[in-house]
């Protein structure tokens, strides 16, 4: 039987090599489809919208955990290696570093080709803000912010929970994250219904985001970036973000790259006066996107090592 840390290393390697092919039946798509399908039914059966949202969360998260456990267990009944292969595959689908880097690089290529319209379209695929009127620097900042935030959601948090609870840990976290991205909007439709999804995601990402925020300055220093500034901006600006978790990595990345991120932006046509994060040491240039990807990769490797040590310590205590 292959140990969980070694399985996770194989899963990370698979993601780095091939990512998530578009034709692949990705589990997250099934989770999102299940969540949307359940929304109509729970809204119809429960009058209290917030309770309906809580019920939807339970009806998604619990089955995802049970199905994941069952798949690995059934595979192990045939042969331990079969169970290991299923486990590795499931964990591989829960890590999104390759696709995140691929999307960010596609924005960078569009900018380097002076195709601002294409760059706006491509960055709109990885961030939630309105991108139609962004200038080049706005596109760069939006891309770097997306890489920073999704380093936790798509990479280090799944690794954290994978080390603690294997494929079940990763898929339960992905279910929680998917629920938040599906329902966690502060608009009239989802302000109450998505409350449980948003709060649960905040809780699930609480520890991984803070650990990742602390790891990123070290990764920046190893990469020859502004490690000291990364830690300084992390300490100063980590709580300025509207999200209780996203500000940690965004501040660390801003300091490492010498960029000022955040600031006013539009969501669904409405202006949001977000605070600035970081100092404008350098002007945003397309190369900053590549630097953010390198920082994400270095943070991923270093996070795995540190999380593995923490996980081993926890298991030893128990």
How would you explain this protein's 3D organization?
The structure is a single chain. Helix content is 73%, strand content 3%. With 318 residues, the chain is mainly α. The protein has one domain (4-317). The chain has a two-stranded antiparallel sheet with strand order 1-4. The chain has a two-stranded antiparallel sheet with strand order 2-3. The longest helix is centred in the middle third of the chain and has 48 residues, at 136-183. The model has no long low-confidence stretch (mean pLDDT 93).
Descriptors for this entry?
about 325 residues, mainly alpha, two-stranded antiparallel sheet, two-stranded antiparallel ribbon, 11 helices, about 75% helix
Q: Within the largest sheet, what's the order of strands?
A: 1-4
Strand content: under 5%
List low-confidence stretches: none
Number of domains: 1
- Number of DSSP helices? 11
In round numbers, the mean pLDDT is 93
* Helix content range: over 70%
Order of helices and strands: HHHHHHHHHHEEEEH
Radius of gyration: 20 Å
> Which structural class fits the helix and strand makeup?
mainly alpha
Distance between the termini: 21 Å
The dominant shape is: globular
Q: Which sheet architecture does the biggest sheet show? A: 2 strands, antiparallel
Count of distinct strands: 4
Furnish the topology, listing elements before pairings.
Elements: H1 4-18, H2 27-45, H3 49-78, H4 80-93, H5 97-112, H6 116-123, H7 136-183, H8 195-222, H9 227-237, H10 246-257, E1 261-262, E2 265-267, E3 270-272, E4 276-277, H11 287-317
Antiparallel strand pairs: 1-4, 2-3
């Amino acid at each position: 039987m292959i140990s969980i840390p070694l399985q996770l290393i194989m899963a990370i390697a698979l993601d780095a090599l091939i990512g998530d092919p578009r034709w692949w039946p990705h589990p997250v798509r099934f989770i999102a489809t299940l969540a949307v399908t359940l929304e109509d039914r729970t809204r119809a059966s429960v009058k209290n919208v917030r309770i309906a949202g809580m019920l939807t969360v339970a009806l998604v998260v619990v089955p995802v955990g049970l199905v994941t456990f069952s798949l690995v267990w059934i595979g192990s009944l045939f042969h331990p290696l079969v169970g290991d292969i299923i486990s590795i595959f499931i964990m591989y689908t829960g890590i999104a570093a390759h696709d995140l880097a691929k999307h960010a690089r596609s924005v960078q290529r569009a900018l380097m080709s002076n195709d601002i319209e294409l760059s706006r379209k491509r960055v709109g695929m990885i961030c939630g803000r309105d991108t139609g009127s962004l200038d080049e620097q706005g596109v760069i900042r939006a891309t770097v912010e997306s890489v920073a935030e999704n380093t936790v959601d798509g990479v280090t948090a799944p690794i954290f929970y994978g080390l603690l609870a294997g494929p079940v840990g990763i898929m339960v976290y992905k279910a929680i994250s998917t629920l938040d991205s599906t329902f966690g909007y502060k608009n009239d439709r989802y302000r109450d219904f998505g409350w449980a999804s948003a709060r649960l995601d905040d809780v699930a990402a609480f520890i991984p985001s803070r650990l990742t925020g602390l790891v990123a300055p070290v990764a920046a220093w190893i990469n020859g970036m502004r490690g000291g500034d990364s830690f300084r901006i992390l300490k100063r600006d980590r709580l300025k973000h509207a999200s209780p978790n996203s500000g940690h990595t965004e501040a660390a990345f801003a300091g490492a790259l010498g960029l000022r991120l955040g600031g006013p932006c539009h969501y669904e046509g409405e202006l949001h006066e977000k605070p600035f994060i970081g100092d404008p040491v350098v002007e945003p240039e397309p190369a900053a996107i590549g630097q953010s990807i390198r920082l994400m990769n270095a943070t991923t490797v270093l996070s795995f090592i540190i999380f593995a040590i923490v996980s081993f310590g926890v298991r030893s205590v128990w």
